[in-house]
Amino acid sequence: MMRKVLAVVLVVVLAAGGWLAWQWQQRPSLEAYAHLYLPPADEQDGLRVTWLGVSTLLIEDGETAIMTDGFFSRPGLLRVALTRIAPDPERIRRNLARAGVDELAAVIVLHSHYDHAMDAPVVAEQTGAVLVGSESTANVGRGLGLDESRIRVVEDGDTLRFGDFEIRFAASRHVPHGQAMGVIDQPLAPPVRASNYLEGGSWSVRVGHPQTNMLVQGSAGFVPDALADWSVDVVWLGIGLLSQQSPEYMAQYWREMVTTTGAQRVIPFHWDDFFRDLEQPLIPFPTMVDDFDATMQALMGYAENDGVELRLVDAWQPVEPLAE
Ligand SMILES: [Zn+2]
Fold it and tell me: How does pLDDT run across 272-318, given as a tens digit for each residue?
């Protein structure tokens, strides 16, 4: 009798494992969106933006270069789930070199979850940049021994200047998922669990520049009317886990980020499976985790309604954000 029960349990466990493994392979194809991709930038001295996965952007104008987040270590799912994690300085160095970065004026951290903040102090150290963000982000920097003179804590409404870039900060919100919320209130020295990287507040960041004004929104959250007096040309729209929100939430997120700011172009990002390293092509998460197709369908509908252009970018490929 006992052996029969065990045999049944074993079959059930194997079947469940097989089902999960199969589900994990089911990912949206990017082919359907091939017509949305921006062409490679051809100018060397205009404003160029290079997407480097998640919400890491290299933004440069030939004089000054800044970066959001700077997340390159990308530890695998099992390591994140089961072990303590830390920045990988060699991997960071290799990826900065691949992106052609040697000097940065600032690394601007959009919030302090590990896929945004973990590597940022190392990027700052390697490029001479100042680390910019919340008090929680500052504590990620302190935990890695980044000098206080290289840390800049910002508040809601602050404006910073780097060369021709004018960077504005508005307090925003994270996409609701309830994980690792709260603040990092003392220096955080890795290796630590991924869940120790508490959100610490999320920013809407306006990157103003004589050529193009952009909103960079890393997480799909919003504070109603917070961006009412912001005007931008392009929105880099974080869509991670947006597919799990209600249609009403998605529509309001679009209104708060795009309709309110008068943007003419929207470039969704933070859709890639960041448990995969950057040596491989970036692909969406399994549909069971986050349904990229559902999000894109919704966004294409809003875009058509508003007469706004929805575009995508290839990682590693500098683009002019307003190029045709
Ligand atoms: Zn987050």
Answer: 999 999 999 999 999 999 999 999 999 999 999 999 999 999 999 99
Residue 158 lies in a domain: yes
Distance CA 286, CA 26 (A): 5
Q: List CB-based neighbours of ion ligand 1 within 5 Å.
A: 113
Task: State pLDDT tens for residues 197-245.
Answer: 999 999 999 999 999 999 999 999 999 999 999 999 999 999 999 999 9
User: What is the residue range of 251's domain?
Assistant: 37-310
In a domain, 73, yes or no: yes
CA of 161 to the centre of ligand 1 (A): 26
Q: What is the CATH number of the domain that holds 160?
A: 3.60.15.10
Ligand 1 centroid to Cα of residue 147, in Å, is 25
Tokens 């006992």 found at: 2
Q: Taken in order 288, 55, 112, 262, is the CA torsion positive or negative?
A: negative
The tally of domains found in the chain comes to 1
Distance 29 CA to ligand 1 centre (A): 24
- Ligand 1 center from residue 42 Cα (angstroms): 33
Give a yes or no: residue 29 inside a domain.
no
CB neighbours of 91 closer than 8 A, spacing ≥ 6? 72, 73, 74, 277, 278
Identify whether 68 is part of a domain.
yes
